[in-house]
Specification:
CATH class of one domain: Mainly Beta
Structural class: mainly beta
Number of helices: 2
Distance between the termini: 59 Å
Strand order of the largest sheet: 4-3-2-1-5
Strand content: 35-45%
CATH topology of one domain: SH3 type barrels
Helix content: 10-25%
Oligomer: single chain
CATH architecture of one domain: Roll
């Protein structure tokens, strides 16, 4: 357990609204870039290959391919330089660190998409050609 004084100080520096994403998700991270007296938000779109840390020291690593060259950036989760994090798609993975993607080339670096089930579908009427079972006839 961490010291309560450290937690109290860190709580004031943490972002209140944190986007929920997991390893394998493709995310768009809006990075604030300062050029002279102007500031703009530049998107960095890639796959989250790792997360580490807790509190204000929590970071996540995003990997993308630019000109057939892999580029990885590690972002602090509570940094003021990170303007927004938006989940584009959910990847189906079985690991907590996806460092094996560094060795993959071409289609092999794609992750299968994880489908989100929002609720059970309960059909109002049976589909065409449906023959009722004995249990269904007894309940009618």
């Amino acid at each position: 357990m961490r010291n309560r004084l450290i937690q109290a100080v860190e709580a004031s520096h943490q972002k209140s609204s944190k986007t929920q994403f997991v390893i394998g998700d493709t995310v768009e991270v809006g990075v604030r870039i300062v050029e002279g007296d102007k500031e703009r938000v530049q998107p960095f779109i890639g796959v989250v290959i790792g997360q580490r840390g807790a509190g204000t020291s929590a970071t996540f690593t995003v990997r993308r391919i630019v000109n057939n060259e892999g580029v990885e950036r590690t972002f602090p989760s509570h940094s003021p330089r990170v303007a927004h994090i938006e989940v584009i798609r959910h990847g189906k993975v079985r690991r907590s660190k996806l460092y094996f993607l560094r060795d993959r080339v071409g289609k092999a670096r794609k992750l299968a998409e994880r489908r989100e089930i929002t609720g059970e579908a309960t059909p109002e009427k049976p589909p065409a050609g449906h023959k009722p079972r004995a249990a269904e006839l007894a309940s009618v």
